[in-house]
Fold this protein.
Amino acid sequence: DDAAGQAAFDAIIAQDSRIEPRDWMPEGYRKTLVRQVSQHAHSEIIGMQPEANWITRAPSLKRKAILMAKVQDEAGHGLYLYSAAETLGTPRDKMTEDLIAGKARYSSIFNYPTRTWADMGAIGWLVDGAAIANQVPLCRASYGPYGRAMVRICKEESFHQRQGFEILLELASGTEAQKQMAQDSINRWYAPALMMFGPPDDDSPNSRQSMAWNIKRFSNDELRQRFVGMIYEQVKVLGLTLPDDQIRFNEETGKWEHGPLDWNEFKEVLAGRGPCNAQRLARRREAHEDGAWVREAAAAYAAKQARKTE
Ligand code: FAQ
């Protein structure tokens, strides 16, 4: 019954152990996981678009092969995550329907345009970098299928981050125009990357409960500050700068600090009014419609195989 289920659940959480799909879990726990994991899956899938924009224009065959592999990895991440969410009882078709109907969230970051080749570098370094900072602690998330999916995803994200940093390093040691292109792209991606960690802690309605359930291990601000400290050092290797002159390590609090972020812009993007929201959703919808014949053919084939074995 529910009381026994709740007691067993509480004991697992208290031991910092794992909840598995067939275990009893509170409805709120299930709901918040479906919310976070499906949003995460959608982010990976929508996140393919800004980079796919540059595949045909990559500056060399080698760069093109690497970028294609990275975009394919994002598709794979989306699939593991949809599978993890499905173990909680929500079918993937339903999640996809919500996404293309504009009812589901995905990360704010993917609503910004990729204007130059340097953006492939800045996305790898800053966006994948922020993703890793946020996701390494999620490898220990209390829900088993989610935590296990995160382990592999984080390994692949590390490779993505290196390739982005290397793109910027090469541009930064190139001509003055190339260096300028790299700097411009860092200037545009810095603040949106910091916003990936979510709203400030005092405006984050889900954090407290998610931390109590061992889904989130650190708060949005804690992870954002840690990330700022990392990129503050890394940008020096590039010989470039971050567009924020207020970054400093506060000896008293032991925390990194950064300049103010425009949370109105974040809210606008979440409300569907960012620079590329409409374009991203239209493209996703179009891809879904274009793929209808594949789904129909697969279903017809499966039905035929089922009849054969009857
Ligand atoms: N964008 O109460 P909180 C990637 C929403 S990495 C949009 O703090 P929570 C890799 C939030 O959902 C990107 N919405 O929420 C890649 C909530 O709304 P709701 C994906 C955001 O869940 C790289 C409301 O604001 N990573 O894809 C954002 O405790 C390159 C209040 O916020 C993940 O999803 C945002 N940035 O904390 C792919 C990581 N922030 O649902 C391709 C897993 C907040 O109540 C290329 N997720 N919101 O309507 C998480 O860790 C958490 O969900 C947070 C938000 C930290 C994102």
User: Anything to note?
Assistant: The mean pLDDT is 97. The CA atoms of residues 144 and 255 lie 31 Å apart. The first strand starts at residue 248 and ends at 250. The beta strands are 248-250, 255-257.
